[in-house]
Design goal:
Shape: globular
Low-confidence stretches: 110-120
Number of strands: 2
Largest sheet: 2 strands, antiparallel
Strand content: 5-15%
Distance between the termini: 47 Å
Mean pLDDT: 80
């Protein structure tokens, strides 16, 4: 069976976006329970999120929010449980997020793209989202 990269990216973007919503609106203990129930450790999740940022090192019109959602999930995790900060730092996520902060793409300013054109603009630029995450991770 052949994997369609664009379809996988769309599914992954949706899954991460949903995960951000779960993390945002769940209590800290509930988010930890979701991870536990799914048999996912914080370290495994951290490594997966890092890999997503590495693989999707620049956005496409098919899934322009994948990097933003990934950084938002990382930030939310740290806000829910400060123990995640060390796990994320140990796995080098801060360095990966620096790349996102330093190389913001115009495309990522939009929530939705149609035919390669940005339609709905985000209120906060992705570089600001990434910088907020770095500040949280580094205790600033």
């Amino acid at each position: 069976m052949e994997v369609d990269i664009a379809e996988e990216g769309k599914r992954l973007e949706s899954l991460i976006g949903l995960s951000v919503q779960i993390c945002t609106y769940a209590r800290a203990v509930d988010f930890a329970n979701v991870l536990h129930t799914a048999n996912i450790s914080a370290e495994i999740l951290a490594l997966k999120l890092k890999k997503i940022l590495e693989v999707y090192n620049s956005p496409t019109t098919e899934f322009p929010g994948i990097r933003r959602y990934t950084v938002q999930l990382i930030t939310c995790m740290m806000e829910k449980n400060s123990d995640y900060i060390e796990v994320l730092r140990t796995n080098g996520i801060d360095e990966t997020i620096e790349g996102v902060a330093e190389a913001p793409m115009r495309l990522e300013s939009f929530k939705l793209c149609s035919y390669g054109i940005g339609v709905f603009k985000h209120d906060v630029h992705i570089s600001d989202v990434a910088k907020k995450s770095l500040e949280k991770m580094r205790g600033n």
